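4.2 Preliminary Data

To establish feasibility before requesting continued support, the project team ran the inverse folding procedure on a target of 143 residues. The structure was first converted into the token representation described in Section 3, and no sequence information of any kind was made available to the design step. The complete token record follows.
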């Protein structure tokens, strides 16, 4: 008899926990916590304000790129969408170093692709390769 009561208690607790999770998820969606697709979006499309629905504070997805077909109402989360690549492997980039008010720039070739804030490797010449952080389109900063 004790085993049956414990089993019912565990089952009830699981049901209550599931209901609470669903209620929290529904509340978060109702408050616009997750940006969603305002329409069907094809693969490889850069997101605009017309593609994203949700709270205006969630405009962080604007400028991101769809990595697969996304249907209307679907949450815009990684890996379905990702930040746009500002540097692509094989492209020419400006390497920028700043120290004490002095700025030095040099042209290099990106060896890897990256989005804003990611690390990429850059070849300066046949013998020198550095790692820097993507600062803007075709610009890599080093410390």
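Position-by-position output of the design step:
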């Amino acid at each position: 008899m004790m085993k049956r009561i414990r089993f019912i208690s565990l089952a009830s607790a699981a049901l209550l926990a599931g209901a609470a999770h669903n209620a929290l998820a529904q509340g978060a969606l109702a408050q616009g916590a997750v940006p969603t697709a305002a329409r069907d979006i094809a693969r490889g499309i850069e997101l605009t304000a017309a593609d994203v629905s949700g709270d205006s504070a969630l405009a962080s997805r604007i400028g991101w790129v769809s990595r697969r077909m996304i249907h209307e109402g679907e949450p815009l989360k990684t890996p379905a969408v990702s930040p746009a690549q500002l540097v692509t492997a094989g492209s020419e980039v400006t390497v920028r170093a700043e120290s004490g008010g002095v700025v030095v720039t040099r042209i290099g070739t990106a060896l890897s692709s990256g989005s804003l804030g990611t690390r990429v490797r850059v070849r300066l010449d046949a013998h020198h390769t550095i790692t820097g952080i993507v600062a803007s389109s075709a610009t890599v900063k080093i410390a």
